[in-house]
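User: For documentation purposes, I need each entry recorded in a consistent format: the amino acid sequence on its own, followed directly by the corresponding structure tokens. There are two entries in this batch. Please keep commentary to a minimum and don't merge the entries.

Assistant: Recorded as requested. Entry 1:
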Amino acid sequence: MRTIPAITPFDIAAARIEIERRNALRVENHLPRLSISKELRRLHDAHIEREFEAFLDSHRALYQRILHRVIHRRARAYGNPNWRPHSFRGMELENGIREMFWQRFIRHTPTST
């Protein structure tokens, strides 16, 4: 079984410093300051998204295997061994698989992230 990559914790202190630095630049340029809480949320969400994409990359072979299996099962169900999903059906299948991986990612993510 493959090891799951370590999830790096979100560094709130470094994020606050970055937000304050950007706010200082914004004040110098006569722009409104950024809300620290909104920016922290945005940076945290971006951090989680990057971690999830790294998780997906580390499981790319499994992702592809599941996708091929799902397509094969749908083709069999439709009675057409040459069936391939069109764009919206393909997005639906991939979103379902990403949701499965998201659930696995959440189970292996420390609650402090």
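Entry 2:
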Amino acid sequence: MIDFSVDSIQNALYDHHPQLINRFCRLTFDDNNAYAHYLLHPWQLNKYVTVTIDKNGKVTAPSELMAEMDMHESKLTQNYIDWRESWMKAHRHLKDFCKL
């Protein structure tokens, strides 16, 4: 059982998917559940979805939101890989200093 606070809600969201803690627009909770509200992309459509966290820390999230979070995670990973490869090419003289 968890006591709902911003920290406990963010921990449960992060454990479910790391991107969930960066993108909610509002957190609410009652005696039984906490709710994280998200605006789906593209934002022009104004489509909101809600993730529910119960007292046991179980997170229930819509599949369309999870697909969006996976997309964000993939972009971040690819951006990091691209940055690292660019850095390594620009710093070839340090080839023995760090490896990919």
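Summary note for entry 2:
Helices lie at 6-16, 20-23, 63-90.
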